[in-house]
Design goal:
Elements: H1 13-37, H2 43-64, H3 71-95, H4 101-108, H5 111-121, H6 130-146, H7 149-152, H8 155-181, H9 187-208, H10 211-214, H11 222-249, H12 252-255, H13 262-274, H14 280-302
Length: 304
């Protein structure tokens, strides 16, 4: 018998609604905040800074409530920090140097399809059903549409797109293992340790590639500062805490459905606030991505 997650009825309904709002809508807005932050702050420095501040605050809060991280918790935090923040967010922040925020969100939207594929491959879930295979195909098509020739002739944009795709894969791997690795029932501690671990890795990466040497704090724009503060408060403190809590109470494929709304929010905000173009291809990719998530979720629900 498969390990069943805690049933939603055991947790307050308001908590569930607010947590899903955070990962659906608030997280969708962070793609634009990332774009603003990396305009004048090196990407690994920006990612490391947001996660270090947020992680330190959450760790202090959890500690004040009597939670103390164990050796196993730190080990698990290192693994998830590596997948979620060093690899996934490092690539995402770097990729958005050249990739529009809405387009990045559409690529990230294939995470549920990758999760559905990884679960049986790693023997952590049943074999995909027919709707899931349909979702995998549509998810692949939604990304292929974005990699059209007139976009990928720009080498920098192509590399950025590949980086964002790598970010989606790394995050999906983290989703698959997160519920098995997180041992503490306290969501603040579950969020704090990966954030802190990932931030240290990001700062080491920034040092290795020379970001600190090139970083001129006098050149940082007000828009980048606002973007970074927004990422710390809403992207890391609010949304990732909600995300960690949801992973303790709901199946990973259900939690991953935040990708339904994230690309829509990101595309609209990119258009409204950053002048990003909404093309026919962006619209087609959005439809394909949302259809893919629907089919993946339907296949997962059919598994019981």
């Amino acid at each position: 018998m498969r390990d069943q997650p805690e049933q939603p009825r055991r947790v307050p309904r308001l908590h569930v609604v607010l947590a899903f709002f955070a990962i659906y809508v608030v997280w969708g807005s962070t793609f634009l905040a990332i774009r603003f932050a990396v305009e004048s702050i090196p990407p690994l420095v920006a990612a490391g800074s947001r996660h270090l501040v947020a992680g330190a605050i959450l760790l202090a809060w959890a500690w004040s409530r009597g939670e103390q991280p164990t050796r196993a918790a730190w080990r698990n935090g290192l693994i998830l920090g590596f997948l979620f923040f060093f690899i996934s967010h490092g690539l995402l922040h770097w990729g958005e140097l050249t990739v529009p925020s809405g387009m990045a969100a559409l690529i990230i939207a294939i995470e549920p399809a990758i999760v559905a594929l990884l679960l049986p491959l790693l023997r952590l879930g049943p074999a995909p059903r027919l709707p899931t295979y349909g979702g995998l195909i549509l998810g692949a098509l939604s990304v292929i549409v974005l990699f059209r020739p007139e976009v990928t002739t720009d080498t920098a944009v192509l590399i950025g797109l590949l980086a964002v795709l790598g970010s989606a894969v790394a995050w999906a791997v983290g989703i698959v293992y997160a519920r098995r690795l997180q041992t503490s029932e306290d969501s603040a501690m579950n969020a704090a340790l990966p954030l802190i671990s990932g931030s240290v890795m990001l700062f080491i990466g920034a040092l290795v590639v020379g970001e600190f040497q090139r970083f001129d704090i006098d050149q940082v724009t007000q828009r980048s500062v606002v973007g970074l503060v927004y990422l710390i408060v809403f992207g890391s403190l609010v949304a990732f805490t909600a995300y960690s809590w949801l992973l303790k109470h709901f199946p990973p494929t259900l939690v991953a459905t935040h990708a339904y709304v994230n690309p829509i929010v990101a595309v609209l905000l990119g258009w409204l606030l950053a002048g990003e173009e909404i093309t026919v291809f962006i619209g087609l990719s959005t439809i394909l991505a949302i259809s893919a998530i629907f089919l993946v979720n339907r296949g997962s629900t059919a598994d019981g």
